[in-house]
Amino acid sequence: MIDVLRALRVxxxxxxxxxxxxxLLLWLLTLxxxxxxxxxxxxxxLYGRLVHDFMDDQMRLVAESYASHHRPPALLPLADAADLxxxxxxxxxxxxxxxxxxASSWPxxxxxxxxxxxxxxxxxxxxxxxxxxxxxxLGAREDRLxxxxxxxxxxxxxxxxxxxxxxxxxxxxxxxxAMMILWIIVTAASRSLRAVARDVVxxxxxxxxxxxxxxxxxxxxxxxxxxxxxxxRLRAAFATQRRFVQDAAHELRSxxxxxxLQIEALRPHVASQxxxxxxxxxxxxxxxxxxxxxxxxxxxxxxxxxxxxxxxxPVDLAALLRDSLGNLMVLADQRGVDVGFEGLLYPFVNAPxxxxxxxxxxxxxxxxxxxKQGTAVDVRLHTAEGRPVVDxxxxxxxxxxxxxxxxxxxxxxxxxxxxxxxxxxxSIAQAAAARHGMRIALRNRSMDEGGPGVVxxxxxxxxxxxxxx
Length: 469
Fold this sequence. Notes:
5-stranded antiparallel sheet, Beta-Lactamase, 11 helices, disordered N terminus, alpha+beta
């Protein structure tokens, strides 16, 4: 609760909400309240004048009516003090000299006779019933009888206030309904903005197409246009980067191929043992690694190209894994590694075959390069954790636990890594897997599992398929 109050205090530190919807509602609520207040105030002023004029006319008529009598008339006393609070008139008949009160409808009222005829305001003390409105008139008799009519000014004030509140009451009652309607209108109007936000979230480095402004409000269109301009500049920058990588890789392939041919031609002229043979083997391994790095750079540039909008047909994953193992048998034979495949499932994956090959070729190639000579690399297509997976198991040295989080970084190679690797294979495989809803997890094999070694598990993006033999 304390954290909520603290967050609320931070959000209101500047006196306004951070959301556009909240700001609109705050300002419109303020305007409605101001309108209600102005309506009540204008009603108070206008109705106050009306009430005062009407009551003054009534007081004058009553006073002149009694003043026209040639004899002091009998006055009907008020029932109780509540009549005063309800606006009843108090009649006072005074002598011509103004010193003697001859009659009064409420003798307890201590309002003196005014020296001037006409209207006046009298204050008799403290409290709510201390202000009085008075009208004084002269009688028609020769002795000039004086008539005075008194009314509570507090009654008039409360009457005007009630009327003013009554005038402002409809706006106050309609305020919640207006706020609800306003909330619905603002929410509906902000749908297009939320649609643009979802469209922006769906973009990545491989899908930089322009945002649609077909249903975007005019106020938001400049923002969409500016973002589309940014996307265009990003597309140009990524295209320039890809072209550079592709051009560099293609330019490097020719000299590396020429060097490879020269090495093959030179091989018969190099002694099979000795320092020259050792240096020749190092040269050959370096050229092989350079050739592999160029191939990986080309694969990386193709992966970073914009994604195709056409859907690929489902791919038989078991057949694709067998094909990948067949293509890598040359490397397995060179390393003296036995390759095994165990397929307990026959799933179909909705992804391009080239992308799936990119995932599994790199993982299998990585396992063949790191496993010990004379051991095996096993590929298993089975079920684990309630979903289909592909496990690629090697018998290599494993990955130090402090470096496990870096193995997917580009160009990262663990200390003591085998020659020929580029440091790009796992990064390329992870990116391709993520694009199609797959996930790669690496772990070291325990000694109970026949370790050391690494298990690379690929979680497939499909429900459990039908198992087969």
